[in-house]
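FAQ: What does a ligand-bound record look like?

Like this one, built around zinc ion:
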Amino acid sequence: MKGFLERMQWKMAGAMQGRRGADSLSNTLVVAGIVCLVLSVLPHMGLFSWPALALLAYALFRTYSKNIAARDRENEAFLRATEKPRRALSIGRKKWENRETTLYFKCKGCGQELSVPRGKGTLRVVCPKCKTETVKKS
Ligand SMILES: [Zn+2]
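The answer part, i.e. the structure of the complex:
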């Protein structure tokens, strides 16, 4: 059985030679396709099976494509277009992870996200962007 699996692994590696493989855009397409697929199972939502099929087919096409330069350009355009929401998501995740040790707040002058360690008493914070001074109880 182990030999069979190893042979399959080698065959897969051979089949993927010179192909693009999965990237951020393909992974996002697969997730969107699965969401559409789940929606299509719900009553009166059957129409979602078409975008699900299209998204998954396009993700497969991109993953097995041999035109690596074109797929790279598509992926870069996708990453550029989604930079802001991805950054907001990553900041949100960081805030949630550090919620017990760090206090996050926005600068009153420019809206820049600032942070101070919790439990250090009253702190004077100077915004690095606009130099507005804020007194914050941590
Ligand atoms: Zn500021």
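Follow-up question: can I read anything off the structure? Yes, for example: The mean pLDDT is 93.
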